Amino acid sequence: MSLMYRIQHPRDALVWEGEIPLFSRYTMGIAGERFFREIMENGRLMGTRCPECDLIYVPPRLYCEQCFAHLDEWVEVPSTGQVHTYTIVHADLDGNPLEEPRILAFIHIDGTDGGLVHYLGEVDPDQVCIGMCVEAVFKDKAERKGGILDIAYFRPVG
Predict the structure, then answer these.
(1) How far are the Cα atoms of 76, 110, 119, 145 from residue 48, in angstroms, in the given order?
(2) What percent of the chain lies above the pLDDT cut of 70?
(3) H/E element, 38
(4) What are the φ and ψ backbone dihedral angles of 44, each rounded to 5 degrees?
(5) What pLDDT sits at residue 59?
(6) What is the spatial distance between Cα 39 and Cα 151, in angstroms, rounded to a whole number?
(7) Structural Rg of the chain based on CA atoms
(8) In this structure, what are the phi and psi dihedrals at residue 145, rounded to the nearest 5 degrees?
(9) CA pair distance 34, 60, nearest whole angstrom
């Protein structure tokens, strides 16, 4: 199929096989940079609050997704939350079996309208439940590099 081939109807769509060598970098952006810097330097979570909707975004955003207001009020948020959903991972990204299963969860951060996807630790897979209260365990300050893995995992509390 040539580059000049024009599809006249969706039923005429064909597969164009081949490889596209793509290389890119994902940047944290302004809000992400501050969020991860706070974790790295101060071991705390921050969010942005919408002055119109009173929503607190974690991870932080620069604009409200509801009303499109500019968000410039940063607030410290708790490092605690609840397991909203989770899965137990038995293989790595290449399909190789893990020595021990890992638990990956979406944690709804207390007092906010958002949350983080992260690992759970200090808990057996058969003990995890939706609604479980958890807290962030930060790596030692000397080990932090400015990314989400500066939070080692979330562990059960209470």
Answers:
(1) 9, 14, 23, 22
(2) 86
(3) helix 29-42
(4) -140, 155
(5) 95
(6) 8
(7) 21
(8) -125, 0
(9) 9
